[in-house]
Design a protein that fits this description.
The protein is α+β, with helices and mostly antiparallel strands. The protein contains 14 helices and 25 strands. Helix 3 packs parallel to helix 5 and helix 7 packs parallel to helix 8. The longest helix is centred in the last third of the chain and has 31 residues.
Length: about 550
Amino acid sequence: MKKQKNIKSFLGIAIGLIVLNIVGNYFFHRFDLTSDKRYTLSETTKAIVGKVDEPVFIEVYLEGNFPAEIRKLQTESKQLLEEFNAYNSNINFIFIDPLADENVAVQMAEQLFANGMKPINISVNDKGKQSQEMVFPWAVATQGDKNAKIQLLKNAMAASTEDKITSSVQHLEYAITEAIVKVTTEKSKKIAVIKGIGELNDVYIADFLRTLKDRYFIAQFTLDSVAVNPQKTLKELQGYDLAIIAKPTKPFNEKQIQVLDQFVMNGGKSLWMLDQVQADMDSLYNPAGEMLVYGKDQTLGEMLFKYGIRVNFDLVKDEIGSPIKLAVGQQGSETVYETFNWKFAPYVISESNHPIVKNIDAVKFDFANSIDTLKNNIKKTVLLASSPYATKVGTPSIVSLSATIQEKTDPNQLKPKQTIPLAVLLEGNFTSVYKNRVVPFKTDHYLTEGKSTKMIVISDGDVVKNQLDQEYQPMELGYDKWTNTLYGNKEFLINAVNYLLDDNGLINLRTKEVKLPLLDKEKVYANYNYIRSVIVALPLLVLIFFGIVFIYLRKKKYTK
């Protein structure tokens, strides 16, 4: 009887498992039990990944002996990639240690570094021995001859390791999906870099343009041809999706303004990086250490005013400035340098949740101007602003290098004020600056009320300027070689372009919130002996308890 009962139970379980497997082949579902649903792919990601019909291979260079924080990033990356693979089996991934083979480790490290994948050094505790290990927190997505880098660990200045990991995990879905877009879709959007208005030299915006080329077509577009054939110039510019105006120094004439205005009216996107005051650091490095700063009228004021914004002829002086290194003397044959707070270079930390600036590193401005937003039907979003401890310096005036760095500020006298906008997003249907006015030239399909579009106005032309190395080659945008500091300028501007040209809403993935249950090290250190005792002793006590109960029950059963 008992044997038959066991056979029936076995058959029942076997049949149940078979049925479950058959059903599972037709109905597949993964359950995300996390409170923040961080392993649930967004609808935007699903729409993009669902269209991938050829294999994409993702190599992740996060394999090895890591401390807990890096292991957390490794685990989160692996689990999220499993979700990508589960949704579309064409998304394949592998975790590898690029330095595993000691014979080629140096060559591999040099190759990764040359490809823009910078390593980090971490301390590894192996059986009580501390050692330094080089880690490349990067991945590369490949399809055919296309590849795209994926930065897994965000380099947030002044942030703790835990905060960096949290910020990086929040960024993972966007970073992976963006890389998949780069390798699986053909470039279609076209960007015009406006020339002929005394703009920054190409070598100073090279890193910005080089990064944009991975996803967009980029071409120079000169406004000089307006003088010969403005209608043709306008028609050609309307063939682009975005116009970038980077630090113009020459005034715009009326025909050039009409070309740009009608480009906006017809739905063209634009990114304006403007200086309304003549001021730069090179002019300060003179024997007197002083320079005259003065407003420069680029004749754009009326057009921007019509759009709902005004860039003022002043300078923003912020108590929370960026560091600057200056020579202060000689020690033997060596020059001695000291670091000072340079208040005319605001160190701007984003307080906005907008996808362009959420979770980006601090952005460095240089002689920025204040921006006023005006009331009209255009939606305006302040992306970046000064600290509450900033003031406006009118022009013309004298800026002194020594007086500024030696200026003493009493913290007790500082009173927080309203922040000063430095970068503003405008969205809506703009009104032409030439409405109810005589136009400089006649053109077909002239619009006084524009189609829906977007633009970003930044009150600093140098925000896009990269430095040059000793061989006069462009360095990474946002990197300051004098203080060895990497700012968030590049991420901010790339996000800005992606937002302006993003049709599928991919940029909105940057607003994803993730709450990681990271270990509180301070509490661990405060209760180290207690926690160690619990970890070591509790499992042994539980094991002894169950052993005693098992022996007692066994004796009770067999002594009857």
